[in-house]
Amino acid sequence: MRRVFLVVLDSLGAGASPDAAEFGDAGANTLGSISREPGFDIPNLLAMGLGNPPGLEFLGRAAQPTAAYGKMRERSRGKDTTIGHWEIAGVVSPRPLPSYPNGFPDDLIAAFSARCGRGVLCNRPYSGTQVIRDYGEEHLRTGKLIVYTSADSVFQIAAHERLIPPEELYAICRTARELLTGEHAVGRVIARPFVGQSAADFTRTANRRDFSLETPEKTMPDLLCEAGLDVIAVGKISDIFAGRGFTEAIRTHGNREGMEATRTLAGQPFHGLCFVNLVDFDMLYGHRNDAQGYAAALTEFDRWLPSFLPLLGEEDVLILTADHGCDPGDASTDHTREYVPLLVYGKAVNPVALGVRECFADVAVSVCRWLGVPCSFPGTDFSQACGTGNRLS
To answer: 67-89 b/e with 16+ CB inside 10 Å = b?
Structure first.
């Protein structure tokens, strides 16, 4: 019984990609920014080899790493959660999903407002924390929805939980998802509930929910599920893939719940994939330019590893990676076009150098090989290099 734990450390970028300047991200380095914080302490990740790939030596190289190590470059034309996860799961997107630097078209907003029976506030790119401060009181006074976007392909709807309970907001988001098709097929519609008495203390809650565009092609979870394997989603993974390709979905409210759920699953028998997203790195720290908080969150994850790794069986594999960057030292609060780290750990894994991979889909190809499921994704297998890729021999 073989299990693969694929953990996405959301937004943990590993330095600017060669094409970063085309995305306005020249010099971005998420790991570089957080490594300078005084509370940054990740001995377990460094022992695995996080600092061994080229360009990451500043973290400190391990003389005898405990994991196979490398980094990956994104082939898709994007730098957001949807595109990044799709590529990890085997689907390369040659064109970026639509974004709206000037807000959404008037006719689209009018159609959305008519379907929901509520007016709309804002309708332009905005910081998620600032938008509720600037429009929250008017939202409570008028009942209008706060609609905003970012540099990513997202249609975000903020609403106070007292005025519009989360389940009602989710229904509104489903309506938006139905409208956002064709040329306006954004990657995600995101529900952003908040609470508080006034602008001074409005706070987003953990009841966020993503309503994603379905992938245009079958993904790694789809193939594994069709092969009869267990495919378990932890965190927002199921939302990112529009609920498709999973036998079980465990929703969490932040990193701690996600780590606890993953550790619990490691103690249970299943055969297949556990696909995890730890969102706090991105949502709470990257987008808020909080390098200190980001460093503390990665330190907390590092301290969790010793409680998880001993639970892995003889054939189990752990893959640690990310979906894009979100440099908290960057001038903007947007995602950044970066390499992402790649660590592969297991009792049967050879701790070799995996080099600089040219596509996130290398993960999908390797996972499918580990689990004995044929695929034709546009990536290159690294399971053989790790010494564990014998399932399709």
So the answer is: bbbbbbbbbbbbbbbbbbbbbbb
Q: Are 2 and 371 in contact (CB under 8 A)?
A: yes
DSSP 149: E
Nearest one of 235, 225, 242 to 177, comparing CA atoms: 242
**12 exposed, middle or buried (CB, 10 Å; 0-12, 13-18, 19+)?**
buried
Structural domains in the chain plus CATH codes: 3-95+214-370 (3.40.720.10), 106-212 (3.30.70.1250)
Hey, what are 184's tokens?
Answer: 């306006």
Q: What's the start-to-end Cα distance of the chain, in Å?
A: 17
State the residue for tokens 């565009």: 213
pLDDT in single tens digits along all 393 residues of the chain: 799 999 999 999 999 999 999 999 999 999 999 999 999 999 999 999 999 999 999 999 999 999 999 999 999 998 999 999 999 999 999 888 899 999 999 999 999 999 999 999 999 999 999 999 999 999 999 999 999 998 889 999 999 999 999 999 999 999 999 999 999 999 999 999 999 999 999 999 989 999 989 998 999 999 999 999 999 999 999 999 999 999 999 999 899 999 999 999 999 999 999 999 999 999 999 999 999 999 999 999 999 999 999 999 999 999 999 999 999 999 888 899 999 999 999 999 999 999 999 999 999 999 999 999 999 999 999 999 998 765 544
Counting Cβ atoms within 10 Å, is residue 308 exposed (0-12), middle (13-18) or buried (19+)? middle
- Token pair for 337: 């076009």
Look up the pTM and report it: 0.89
Rounded to whole angstroms, the Cα distance separating 220 from 89 reads 5
